[in-house]
Structure formats: structure tokens, C-alpha cells
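Posted in: Structural Biology > Protein-Ligand Complexes

Title: Requesting predicted complex, 6-O-phosphono-beta-D-fructofuranose in pocket

I'd be grateful if someone could produce the C-alpha cells for the following input. Sequence and ligand are given below.
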Amino acid sequence: MPDTSQYLAGRTLILVSNREPYEHTFEPGSAAVKVRRPPGGLVSALDPTMQCTRGTWVAWGSGTADRDTADAAGRIAVPPEKPAYTLRRVWLDDADIDGYYLGFANSALWPLCHMLLQHYDMRQEYWERYVAVNARFADAAADEARRAPNAPVVWVQDYHFALVSAMLRERLATERRPIFLHQFWHIPFPPPDILRLLPTAAYSGVMRGLLGNDLVEFHTERYAQNFLDCVDEFVPESRVSRDARRVRLGDREIHVGVFPISIDAEHYESLARAPEGAAKAAELRTKYAADGACLGVSVDRVDYTKGIPERLRALDQLWTEAPELRRKLTFVVVATPSRSELRSYKTLEEEVVAGVKAINERFGDEHWTPIVLINENVDAAGLASIYRAGDVCLVSSLQDGMNLVAKEYIACNVDEQGVLVLSRFTGAAAEIDDAILINPFNVDGVVAGLRRAVTMPREERRARMQRMRRQLRRATIFDWLDAILARVDELASPPQEIRGPAERTPLAPAESSAA
Ligand code: ADP
Ligand code: F6P
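-- Reply #1 --
Done. Output follows.
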């Protein structure tokens, strides 16, 4: 990974995210503690950065042994085997998790930002909890900022914490130390007509909360422009420059940036090339794609944004319309349960299992199972071999901030024979030029895309995959991190002073009136 420490010289990085980088849990039925490092690109990219900058990571202490391993303030030095930075855990009780995480974040903001309104469920208590939990994270981050040996740069992650930066700015208003606040919004940002489905206090609070940052980052130009449209509409005292992607609010300037996230492409490629990865991929092909047959793959959390029922409908139609593809095309569908406490997710899990069963009963026989469903967690090495084995990878998201699965498939396609069939409603589609783009709402179009993928000539497949791989190598997670830190460095120097309350435009989400 490139050396990013150059950008944070003389500054202390304080990261705020919902998920923590190290989770301590008790082994079932025993007092033995085990450390888990949650999988995912963000943790693997940011953990080394935190280790070299020796900053602080503020996150929800979600592990059963987290309290027993941290001090009274929730602090613990990590990585456990070679401490390099501080993890500051924030404690949430069941009511917080219900209202803040399952409620406002995942039942209100998540469906609205993905524009899937049928899943939108808003309650006043969700918003109140979200405000309260954001305030607790702001308290923890403020405490860490005061403890920081150098001028703090606070980097807030995602839609769980729309209010943290504005709250933090208030808490540190009397501090004379320079501070820079920025936030990455990892999911789509909706246009004003969708955001206004929130109660007034909530949409106004979210917008004013995000404007507490000096820089707000998105994956695509479209999300950035939607954000600026929402600022224009919901924060009337602001002045928006769309071309410059800048907002003027009182005497402050808020910058908006576009930074498409990526993956550690080399790491995925090495997993796919490793002897075990290659052997597992060969085994999958022998089992499901012998004698020149084709193997399709898909990998998602079971989430209604991923278009899994739509994908099953398309496969059903494909095998109906093209009987010659029966026994010639098998699909491995990795679909791991997620957020199962929410009824819409639980129902979807059942729908996926039933949908796969119905298709297998309709088209399968004792020698052939059309869809192989893997509904448990698969580690990165296991995924790499599935990606390597796949002739076709189908990403059918109805909306998706980026979709890293598409990039992981490209990285693992070391034989350069795979075809990516990609929903045009993913952030990845704005970036990847050589995928077959589909509209998952149009089942005929998905079927046509799949037919094109399975019949694509070898040379075209190779040429497209080679171009996608070259493009990916030029834009990895480290390039993403590097670009953001460089922008922060540029905007934060000379260090900006925190300004006192009298000089600022009010940014107090909790105090705005309900509607
Ligand atoms: P999201 O952030 O909405 O889950 P992405 O596709 O952007 O969607 O990222 C998902 C990440 O989680 C990827 O790194 C992917 O490998 C991993 N992942 C997704 N589904 C599974 C699964 N079923 N089992 C294991 N890992 C998964
Ligand atoms: O990409 C959006 C996101 O919410 C991430 O922040 C998160 O890690 C991932 O989806 C999985 O969701 P959760 O953390 O709710 O399990």
C-alpha cells in the first residue's frame, strides 16, 4: 500500500464509524475471549492508515467481550497483537440499536437513499434515538479531539452519523485548536423529492448536520449533485455553486468531492491465484461447469437493494425461453443474511430460499441443480475462488452506492475470460466501461444481457476483461484513500480555526421543529 502518512504530518486522524475494526467476543459458553476483524474493504484499508498515523477510531462496541477488554472510557489499544492506535468504543443499549441503527439508519435513511420507498418506515422515536446516539458519538469524538497530541482531522463514515460533524463543531467551538471535519457518504444520496419524505426536522437536521463538515465525499457525480440540490432546497440561507461543488454557509465554505471507492485489487488477485484458490476454482468448475458448460456467480448480503428476487425471475425466464441453456448454465448464488432483525430483511431471506427452491424444482433433475444457494458467510479466499470460477458475474442491484462485488470479480478474473453483467444503477456502472449494463427492473433486458454474456466470443470476453482489469489497477482502495487525504491536506492547510457559536450559522439538528 502507498505511504499515506505524508498527508497527515502534524495532524491526528480521528475516524468515526458504526462498525469497529476489532471486535472482542466471548467463545460460546466460556470466558475465553476471541478477537474478530470484521471483513470488508473499508476496515482493511483504514486499519493500516490508522496504524501508521497512530490516531483514534471511534466506533460502536458491538462485541460481547468489548466492555471487558476496554478501559472505563471504552478505550483499548489495537491491533491487540501490536498496539499502534486507540479504538474508542461507544456503548449502545437495545433501545439505541432499535431506534438509531435498525430504525432511523436502516428503516428510514437506507430505503430513502436507495429510492425504494416501499421499504421506508419512519417513526418519531427513531429520529430521537438517532439524534441521541449521534450526540454520544460526537461527545466521544470531542473527547478524543481534546486528547489528540496534534491538530485533529476527524473523518466520519456514512449515513449512520449525519449529525456528528455539526454536533462536534459545536462541542469544540471554544477550542482554539485547528480542526478539519470531513465525511464519506457510502450510499447513494437521493434527490430533494425523496429526502423530503422525512419529517422536516429530520431532513433539515440531516442536511445541516452534513454541512457541519468542511468536505463531504461521495462515490459519483450524481450523488454529489443530488446532495447540492438538497442543500439548495432545504438550507435556504446557503449559496450553492454546482460546478465548483461548493456551498457557502455563513462565513464557512463546505466542499463536496467525488471519490469512487475501490478494493485492494492485488490482495483479491493473489487470493484467486494462490494454489488453494486455483484448486477451489477448478473444483467448482468440475462440479458445476464440466464439458464446456457455463458457470454464473453472484455475491451479496441479502438486502432488497441488491435485486435478488429480480435476478431469480430473470433466470427463471432465461431457462424457460432458452431450454438449450438448461444443464449448460448453472448459477452459484452467495447470499448471506444481513440485518435479519428487520422484518423486510427476514422476509426477503425466506423469499430467496423459496424462489431458489421453486426454480430448482421446475428445471432441475437428479443430475443438475440450476441454482446452488450458499446462504452463509464466505471468507475472502472462498469468494475469490468463486469469482475466479465464474464465467459470468451478475450484479442486479436496484440501487447501490458503489458495489464492490463487481470490482472483486474483475480482480479475481485472472484467466480473463469472465463477463460482468452489471446493473446501471450501481456507482460502479459510472466507472466501469466494459461490463454489459442492465436495468434490473426490466426482466427482458436482464435475460438479453445474460444471453449476450453466455454467447460472447472468447476474444471479446478477453479484451473487455483486460480493459476492466487495467482500469481497476489504476483505481484501487489505496488510490481512493490517497486522493481523499491529498484533498484534505490541500483544504486543511493552513489549518482552519474552529469558529465560535456567535460567528456560525445555527447547525442544531435536534432543535429544529417537527412536521
Ligand atoms: P454492501 O456494502 O452494500 O454490502 P458491496 O458490494 O459494496 O455491498 O460490498 C460488500 C462487501 O461484502 C464485499 O467486500 C463483499 O465481498 C462482501 N460480501 C458481500 N456479500 C457477501 C457474502 N454473501 N459473504 C461474504 N462476503 C460478502
Ligand atoms: O455500504 C453500506 C453499509 O452500510 C456499510 O457501511 C456496512 O458495512 C455494510 O453496508 C453492511 O451493513 P451493516 O453494517 O449494517 O451490517
